[in-house]
C-alpha cells in the first residue's frame, strides 16, 4: 500500500493557507505600523498622564496593544506547530491561553504542509485532516480500548456503531481479498494525535489494519520496549504516544501504512523508520547489522512476533498463560483470589465479622461461663483460600473507594447538585476515574475533570485526605469485572439501562457470576442491598445471609421482580424523586434507596427473556440491575453484551473492553463457603472447639528455649536483640508466627510485613534471617521449619505467653484442674497473673496492620473474661467474696465491656452484704455504659439484688 497522492485540491488548500498565514503573521503587524503607529508612550508616563481625559485616540491605542498581543500569541502558535510538524515526533507544545488561536494555526500549517516533502501519513494528525474515507472514516470513535484512561461506550453509542463495525469487517475482508499476495514488505504506522474525543489506540489500529481489534497484542509484541524517537519506550498496550512509529504484522493493510523502502516519503522520515526498524529483535537475530545506521538494509518480509492467531488467543499465548497459572498454583494459593484485591478484602472483612459474631454469641449464650473459645482451624482448600485472601486483600483500596464516593456525594449535596449517573469506575494505583453517562459539569474539589467531559478523576493523594462520613453510599452497585493493564474496572450494575448479558461456556459464566455475587455481598462501599441469585450451582448464602437470596427458577424471579418494580415505581412517585440517586443524597438521604441486583446465571427462554427485558427497561431509574447468562450474545433486551472466553478474557468489543476477568471458579467457591460455614454461630450449638490448637508443657520441665510476652508490652526472652535496622521486622514476623501455630505461608508473611508489596528475594532473605535469629534446639533442629505445603512453623521450644495462657485455662477446666479443686485454683490464678494489658500494647505505629484481619483482639478479652469468671466461681464456692471481686476486677481491666463480668461482680459485691458498695458499683457500670444505659440482663439483676438502685443512683447524680 502506498501513501495517498497529492491532488489539485491539496495545492489549492495549501495556497489559501499560505495566503492566510502571510496576512496574519506579516500583514497584521505591517498594517498596525502603517495606520496606527507606535501605541505606547515614548517616555515614562507622569502622574498627570493618569488624570488626562480618555479620548478616542487613547481607546484606539489600547485596542492596538491588545491586537499586538493577540498577534504575538498567534505567531508563537504558528512557530510551535511548524516545528512539531517538521519533526514529526509527539504532540505540539501548548501555548498558554491560546486554545482557539493554536487550533487555527494548526489547521493552516497542516494544510500548507500537505504538499511538503513529508508524507501526510508520517506527520501526526495530517492523515486524518479531511481525508478519511472508507474504513477509516467510518471507524472513528467506535472502539477505544487502549486510551490513556480506559473507557466504555454507552449503550446508545454501542448500538449506533454496531452497523459500522459490521460494515468495516466486510470492507476489510474485501480489501484483503483484493490485495492477494501483496504482503511482502515491512509496514509501519505512526500513532496519530487525538482529534476531538477520538484517541488513537492499538485496538483501533488493529481493527483498521488487521481486521480484528483483538490482534492489538501482535502490534504490542512487535514494538514492546523498542526505543522511540522521543527517547521513550512502549511498555503497556494502553500507553501509546502520538508520533510513535509502530511496526505492523505482515498482513496489515490500509492507506495510512507506509512500506519500506518507499520513495514517497522524505529521506529524514526514511532514516527515522530505518533506525526504529533496527531496534527490533528480529534484526539482531537475523544478523543483519549494518555499519552505517542510515543505510541499513531492511528485511523484505516480517512474520508476527507472537504465535497468536487472529482471535488473539493462539496456542503460544495459551501455553504461556497455562505456565503462569501452573506457577501460581505451585505455591498452593489460588491466584483468582490473590489477584482480586477488592473481592478478597470484602470476603476477609466479612469472615472476620462472622467469626467475632460467633465468639460473642457463644459467650453470651453460655450459662455460668464457657469452656473453650477456639474457632476451627481451616485445612486443605479452605486454608489455601484463607491464605489467598490474606495475600490478595487490599483494605486500603476499599477504604479509598468508599470514602471518595461518599465524599463526592456529600460535596454535591452541599452544592444542591444531583448525583451524576456513573456507568463505571476505573481504579488504578495513581487515581480514581469515574465514567459518567453524560457530562455533568465541573466536579467538586478535589475531584478534577478527566480526559473527556464524561470523566471525573481523583488522585490517590487527594483521596487519602477524605475522612469517614455518614453520607449514604452513592453507588453501591459497583462491582469488579477485571483489569485492563494496571486499571481495574468496576461496572455500576444498577445504572445500566437494560440487561447486561454474559455469554460463554457454562463453567466460565458461573465463575464470573460467583465473583460478582461474592463481591456485591461483602464489599465495603455499600450500605444495604438485595442480591437475588438464580441458577447458581453453589449456595453462596453463607457469605451474607442478609443480602443474598436464592430463587428456584426464572418463573419465581419474574414474579418477584414484577412486584418489586411496581413497588419501587410507586415509592419513587410518592417521594417525588426522578430516580433512586436523588433519594440517596440531600434532604431525603435517610430513605437510603438500596439497590436490588439480579444475577441469572442460566439462560432464560425466549419468552422469559422478553419479560425480563420489559422489566429492565426502566430498571436503572429504580436502582435495579440485571445480569443474565446466555450461550450466545444475542439475548433480547441486552443493553451491554459481554463474553467470557475459556482463557479468562472478558470481551465487549462494542464497549471497547478486553479485560483479564475476575473469576471465582467452582472449587474456590466451595472453599470460601466452607470458611464461612465453619464460622457460622448456628452451626455448632455447643460453641467452638474446646481444645486450643497448640498446648505447651506448663510444668517446670517444659521451660521453653524462647519465650515471647505478647499480652501487654512485647518482650522476647531467650534471644539476643537483632541489629537495630532488622529488629522491627524480625519481631513482627515472630509475633505473626506465634499467633498462628498452624503455620504461615511465606506469601502471607510477606503481605503482612510489606502491605505495599515486596520482591521474593527480599522476603526469602528475611525468612533466612529469622531462621538464623531463632537458632536451633540442642538436637540441632531448626526452631523454624517449613512443612510439606511450604508454610513456616515454629518449634515447640518457641512459646508465647498467650500459648501458656490458653494452656493454663485448658488444664484448669478440662485437665488436672477438673478433678482437683486446689490445682484448678492455682492454675487459674497463674493464668490471670499473665495478663499485663492488651495484645502487643506497645507495638510501633504504622506496623502490625495485619492484626486488623485477626480475631485475636476478640479472643483475648473473652479468654481473660472466662478465666476471671472461673476464678471468681472458685472463690465464691468458699464464700471468699473479696477474692472473687479481685479476680473479676483484674479481668475487667482487659475485658471491660464483657457483660458477664459485670453481672458476676454485682453478685460478688452483693455477697459482701454491703448495699452502699453495691450502689457504687451500679453507678460505676452505668457511667461505663454511656448513653446506651445498662444492658437488659444487668438491669434485671440489679432489680433483683437492690430494688432501690435506680433512686439511689439518680440521687447521687
UniProtKB/TrEMBL annotation:
<feature type="compositionally biased region" description="Low complexity">
    <location>
        <begin position="305"/>
        <end position="325"/>
    </location>
</feature>
<keyword id="KW-0812">Transmembrane</keyword>
<dbReference type="GO" id="GO:0000160">
    <property type="term" value="P:phosphorelay signal transduction system"/>
</dbReference>
<dbReference type="Pfam" id="PF03704">
    <property type="entry name" value="BTAD"/>
</dbReference>
<keyword id="KW-1133">Transmembrane helix</keyword>
<dbReference type="InterPro" id="IPR005158">
    <property type="entry name" value="BTAD"/>
</dbReference>
<dbReference type="InterPro" id="IPR052196">
    <property type="entry name" value="Bact_Kbp"/>
</dbReference>
<keyword id="KW-0902">Two-component regulatory system</keyword>
<dbReference type="InterPro" id="IPR036779">
    <property type="entry name" value="LysM_dom_sf"/>
</dbReference>
<feature type="coiled-coil region">
    <location>
        <begin position="871"/>
        <end position="898"/>
    </location>
</feature>
<feature type="domain" description="Bacterial transcriptional activator">
    <location>
        <begin position="800"/>
        <end position="946"/>
    </location>
</feature>
<feature type="region of interest" description="Disordered">
    <location>
        <begin position="271"/>
        <end position="332"/>
    </location>
</feature>
<dbReference type="InterPro" id="IPR018392">
    <property type="entry name" value="LysM"/>
</dbReference>
<protein>
    <recommendedName>
        <fullName>Bacterial transcriptional activator domain-containing protein</fullName>
    </recommendedName>
</protein>
<keyword id="KW-0175">Coiled coil</keyword>
<keyword id="KW-0472">Membrane</keyword>
<feature type="transmembrane region" description="Helical">
    <location>
        <begin position="12"/>
        <end position="38"/>
    </location>
</feature>
<dbReference type="InterPro" id="IPR011990">
    <property type="entry name" value="TPR-like_helical_dom_sf"/>
</dbReference>
Amino acid at each position: 500500500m502506498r501513501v495517498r497522492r497529492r491532488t489539485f485540491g491539496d495545492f489549492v488548500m495549501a495556497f489559501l493557507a499560505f495566503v492566510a498565514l502571510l496576512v496574519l503573521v506579516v500583514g497584521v503587524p505591517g498594517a498596525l505600523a502603517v495606520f496606527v503607529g507606535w501605541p505606547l508612550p515614548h517616555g515614562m508616563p507622569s502622574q498627570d498622564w493618569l488624570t488626562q481625559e480618555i479620548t478616542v485616540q487613547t481607546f484606539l491605542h489600547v485596542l492596538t496593544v491588545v491586537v499586538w498581543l493577540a498577534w504575538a500569541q498567534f505567531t508563537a502558535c504558528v512557530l510551535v506547530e511548524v516545528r512539531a510538524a517538521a519533526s514529526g515526533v509527539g504532540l505540539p507544545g501548548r501555548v498558554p491561553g491560546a486554545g482557539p488561536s493554536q487550533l487555527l494555526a494548526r489547521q493552516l500549517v497542516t494544510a500548507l504542509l500537505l504538499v511538503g516533502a513529508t508524507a501526510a501519513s508520517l506527520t501526526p494528525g495530517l492523515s486524518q485532516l479531511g481525508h478519511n474515507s472508507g474504513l477509516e472514516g467510518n471507524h472513528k470513535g467506535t472502539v477505544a480500548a487502549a486510551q490513556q484512561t480506559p473507557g466504555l461506550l454507552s449503550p446508545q453509542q454501542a448500538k449506533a456503531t454496531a452497523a459500522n463495525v459490521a460494515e468495516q469487517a466486510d470492507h476489510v475482508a474485501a480489501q484483503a481479498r483484493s490485495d492477494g499476495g501483496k504482503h511482502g514488505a515491512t509496514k509501519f504506522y505512526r500513532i496519530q494525535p487525538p482529534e476531538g474525543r477520538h484517541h488513537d489506540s492499538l485496538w483501533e489500529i488493529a481493527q483498521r489494519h488487521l481486521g480484528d481489534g483483538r490482534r492489538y497484542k501482535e502490534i504490542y509484541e512487535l514494538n514492546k520496549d523498542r526505543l522511540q524517537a522521543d527517547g521513550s519506550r512502549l511498555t503497556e498496550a494502553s500507553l501509546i504516544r502520538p508520533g510513535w512509529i509502530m511496526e505492523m504484522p505482515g498482513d496489515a493493510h490500509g492507506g495510512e501504512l507506509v512500506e519500506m523502502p518507499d520513495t514517497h516519503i522524505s529521506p529524514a522520515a526514511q532514516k527515522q523508520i530505518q533506525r526504529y526498524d533496527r531496534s527490533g529483535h528480529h534484526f539482531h537475530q537475523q544478523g543483519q547489522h549494518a555499519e552505517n545506521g542510515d543505510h541499513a538494509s531492511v528485511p523484505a518480509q516480517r512474520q508476527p512476533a507472537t504465535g497468536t492467531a487472529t482471535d488473539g488467543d493462539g496456542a503460544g499465548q495459551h501455553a504461556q498463560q497455562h505456565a503462569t497459572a501452573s506457577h501460581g498454583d505451585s505455591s498452593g494459593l489460588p491466584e483468582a483470589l490473590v489477584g482480586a484485591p477488592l473481592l478478597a478484602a470484602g470476603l476477609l472483612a466479612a469472615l472476620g465479622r462472622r467469626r467475632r459474631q460467633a465468639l460473642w454469641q457463644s459467650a453470651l449464650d453460655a450459662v455460668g461461663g464457657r469452656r473453650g473459645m477456639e474457632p476451627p482451624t481451616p485445612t486443605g482448600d479452605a486454608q489455601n483460600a484463607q491464605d489467598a485472601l490474606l495475600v490478595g486483600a487490599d483494605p486500603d483500596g476499599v477504604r479509598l473507594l468508599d470514602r471518595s464516593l461518599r465524599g463526592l456525594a456529600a460535596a454535591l449535596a452541599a452544592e444542591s447538585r444531583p448525583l451524576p449517573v456513573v456507568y463505571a469506575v476505573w481504579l488504578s494505583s495513581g487515581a480514581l476515574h469515574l465514567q459518567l453517562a453524560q457530562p455533568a459539569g465541573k466536579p467538586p474539589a478535589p475531584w478534577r475533570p478527566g480526559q473527556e467531559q464524561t470523566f471525573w478523576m481523583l488522585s490517590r493523594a487527594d483521596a487519602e485526605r477524605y475522612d469517614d462520613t455518614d453520607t449514604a453510599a452513592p453507588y453501591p452497585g459497583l462491582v469488579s469485572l477485571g483489569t485492563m493493564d494496571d486499571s481495574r474496572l468496576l461496572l455500576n450494575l444498577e445504572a445500566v439501562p437494560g440487561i447486561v448479558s454474559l455469554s460463554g461456556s457454562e463453567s466460565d459464566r458461573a465463575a464470573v457470576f460467583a465473583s460478582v455475587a461474592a463481591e456485591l455481598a461483602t464489599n465495603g462501599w455499600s450500605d444495604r442491598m438485595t442480591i437475588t441469585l438464580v441458577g447458581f450451582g453453589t449456595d453462596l448464602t453463607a457469605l451474607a445471609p442478609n443480602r443474598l437470596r436464592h430463587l428456584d427458577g426464572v418463573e419465581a424471579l419474574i414474579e418477584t421482580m414484577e412486584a418489586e418494580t411496581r413497588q419501587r415505581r410507586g415509592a419513587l412517585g410518592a417521594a417525588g424523586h426522578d430516580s433512586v440517586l436523588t433519594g440517596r443524597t440531600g434532604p431525603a438521604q435517610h430513605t437510603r434507596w438500596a439497590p436490588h441486583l439480579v444475577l441469572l446465571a442460566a439462560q432464560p427462554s425466549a419468552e422469559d427473556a422478553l419479560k425480563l427485558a420489559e422489566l429492565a427497561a426502566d430498571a436503572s431509574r429504580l436502582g435495579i440491575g440485571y445480569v443474565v447468562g446466555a450461550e450466545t450474545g444475542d439475548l433480547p433486551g441486552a443493553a451491554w453484551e459481554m463474553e467470557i472466553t475459556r482463557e479468562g478474557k472478558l470481551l465487549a468489543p462494542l464497549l471497547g473492553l478486553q479485560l483479564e476477568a475476575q473469576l471465582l471458579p467452582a472449587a474456590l467457591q466451595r472453599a470460601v463457603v466452607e470458611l464461612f460455614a465453619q464460622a457460622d454461630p448456628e452451626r455448632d450449638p455447643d460453641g467452638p472447639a474446646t481444645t486450643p490448637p497448640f498446648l505447651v508443657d506448663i510444668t517446670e520441665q517444659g521451660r521453653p528455649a524462647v519465650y515471647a510476652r505478647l499480652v501487654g508490652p512485647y518482650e522476647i526472652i531467650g534471644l539476643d536483640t537483632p541489629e537495630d535496622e532488622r529488629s522491627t521486622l524480625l519481631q513482627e514476623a515472630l509475633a505473626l508466627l506465634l499467633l498462628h501455630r498452624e503455620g504461615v505461608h511465606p506469601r502471607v508473611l510477606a503481605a503482612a510485613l510489606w502491605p505495599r508489596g515486596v520482591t521474593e528475594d527480599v522476603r526469602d532473605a528475611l525468612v533466612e534471617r529469622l531462621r538464623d535469629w531463632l537458632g536451633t534446639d540442642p538436637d540441632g533442629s531448626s526452631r523454624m521449619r517449613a512443612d510439606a505445603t511450604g508454610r513456616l512453623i515454629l518449634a515447640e521450644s518457641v512459646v508465647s505467653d498467650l500459648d501458656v495462657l490458653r494452656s493454663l485455662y485448658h488444664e484448669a477446666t478440662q485437665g488436672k484442674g477438673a478433678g482437683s479443686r486446689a490445682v484448678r485454683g492455682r492454675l487459674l490464678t497463674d493464668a490471670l497473673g499473665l495478663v499485663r494489658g492488651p495484645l502487643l500494647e506497645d507495638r510501633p505505629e504504622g506496623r502490625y496492620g495485619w492484626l486488623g484481619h485477626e480475631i485475636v483482639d476478640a479472643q483475648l478479652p473473652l479468654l481473660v473474661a472466662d478465666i476471671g469468671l472461673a476464678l471468681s466461681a472458685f472463690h465464691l464456692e468458699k464464700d471468699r467474696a473479696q477474692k472473687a471481686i479481685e479476680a473479676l476486677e483484674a479481668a475487667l481491666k482487659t475485658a471491660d465491656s464483657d457483660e458477664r463480668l459485670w453481672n458476676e461482680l454485682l453478685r460478688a459485691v452483693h455477697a459482701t452484704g454491703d448495699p452502699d458498695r453495691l450502689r457504687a458499683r451500679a453507678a460505676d457500670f452505668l457511667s461505663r455504659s454511656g448513653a446506651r444505659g445498662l444492658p437488659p440482663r444487668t438491669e434485671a439483676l440489679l432489680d433483683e439484688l437492690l430494688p432501690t438502685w435506680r433512686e439511689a443512683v439518680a440521687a447521687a447524680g
